[in-house]
Amino acid sequence: MTSPDPVRLRVWQALASLWLDTELQDHQLRWIAAELRASGLPREELEAIYLYEVAPLLWPNLWTPTGAWAGFDAAWLAAGCERNRQRRASRWHRGKCRLLRWLMTGATLGDWRQVQLLLDQEFH
Predict the structure, then answer these.
(1) Whole-model pTM?
(2) Which comes out higher in pLDDT, residue 21 or 117?
């Protein structure tokens, strides 16, 4: 497998913070928004990365009693998100993500909306 695009890797790492078993503070949400903004990727692509690349990999962390709170292994995160990126063209993958959307993103939705608001402040 080739190395993932460094821009996308930073996006994955920033979005992964949403699935850590901690309550994110305002400065952490601003950091996530800044990383996403710095990527230069369009809002639609950032949303797709959140839904189809990161969420399918990390959602179990918030549904286990002892989820990771300090961070995810960078190599593991990159490999899993890259695998999901390659699956995005698959109807099966997109359908599964839509079917399980609440389970995969329900616990992160409030923080994700805050990040989106921060992005909106900069994009407008």
Answers:
(1) 0.88
(2) 117
